[in-house]
Specification:
This protein has helices at about 1-25, 115-125, 145-155, 165-180, 185-195, 200-210, 220-225, 230-240, 245-265, 270-275, 280-290, 295-305; strands spanning about 30-35, 40-45, 50, 55, 60-65, 70-75, 75-80, 85-90, 90-100, 105-115, 140-145. With about 300 residues, it is of the alpha+beta class.
Length: about 300
């Protein structure tokens, strides 16, 4: 117990150091996501609690260095704060909300896109064996170990010496990936990059659903692509995404509909048919259930917010 307490205290201290670095690179900038000179690395900043537009998140590491966030996925809420991180292993429709932030002490975060190819190379050199029987969740929230935070600090400090980035950034990223693989939730990261794993097979099916989300869902064809029976496919898909294939497709359609109405000033009925619905009334009911208001009322609320 003493060891865990000391480790947590060390993690908090390192997170405070990282927060100072992220603040230095985002001071004076608007709230939002800010790219850096390291391609896969971004910083996030928010001076007030705010809700993000729901979207489909690709594989990433999101580390909170100051403040708190909430993650909403299929009506389940996950909370995480300073010195904790979120890993998303497959493309998932989710919403992340900043719930603790102020102008004096803004929310600060670090986001890193995950590269399955690099992860696969590290897995091959460490422990290539994997249990294919059960799927693991395609996302998780975990406490950051001091060793992981140390990698994040050194990566962020590289921004002060841009000439060192091409040589040193790949090595630090490699170490950071290694720390993720060796962490409490390493199995989820491992399945992301392991050829033939249940998660990777589900991830390929997800890409197919995303590419043609307006088409009717044929579960038998998806199960065949994943090389699973229909019942096994349903079980593994839900284990990874927390929803059925039909629920996943529905969320993609509703997210796309919301973006189109907001960006293109389209009416709800026309949008419903464009994203694959055969019934405008069903679209309105499911839209209101997901976003808390009928389509046009929701869009009006977003535009005046």
């Amino acid at each position: 117990m003493v060891i865990e307490t000391l480790s947590h205290q060390t993690a908090i201290a390192k997170c405070e150091e990282l927060a100072a670095l992220v603040a230095q690179h985002t001071d004076g900038q608007e709230d939002g996501v800010h790219a850096t000179a390291i391609d896969s690395l971004c910083f996030t900043r928010a001076c007030n609690p705010a809700a993000a537009m729901p979207g489909v998140s690709e594989p990433l590491l999101a580390l909170v260095v100051q403040g708190r966030k909430e993650l909403l996925l299929n009506e389940e809420i996950y909370r995480y704060g300073m010195a904790q991180y979120l890993v998303v292993s497959v493309d998932l429709p989710l919403s992340a909300y900043v719930v603790e932030a102020s102008p004096v002490q803004p929310y600060l975060g670090l986001k890193l896109d995950l590269d399955p190819v690099q992860l696969c190379d590290i897995i091959a050199q460490t422990n290539p064996g994997i249990d294919q029987k059960e799927s693991v969740r395609g996302w998780f929230v975990s406490n950051a170990e001091p060793s992981l935070l140390d990698c994040a600090i050194r990566l962020t400090k590289l921004l002060e010496t841009p000439q060192d980035i091409p040589f040193l950034a790949p090595m630090i990223l490699r170490e950071l990936y290694y720390r993720l693989l060796m962490g409490d939730q390493g199995e989820a990261v491992r399945q992301l990059a392991t050829s033939g794993s249940n998660m990777q097979r589900i991830a390929e099916v997800i890409k197919r659903i995303k590419a043609d989300f307006t088409a009717p869902l044929r579960v038998e064809e998806l199960a065949e692509q994943a090389n699973m029976s229909a019942s096994s496919f349903h079980r593994h898909f839900k284990a990874v995404t927390s929803m059925s294939p039909l629920q996943y497709q529905k969320q993609l359609r509703l997210l796309e509909a919301r973006q189109r109405m907001l960006a293109e000033d389209m009416d709800a009925t026309h949008t419903a048919y464009q994203v694959g619905y055969e019934s405008a009334s069903q679209f309105s009911r499911e839209y209101a259930r997901m976003f808390g208001a009928p389509p046009m009322k929701d869009i009006e609320r977003l535009r005046t917010a």
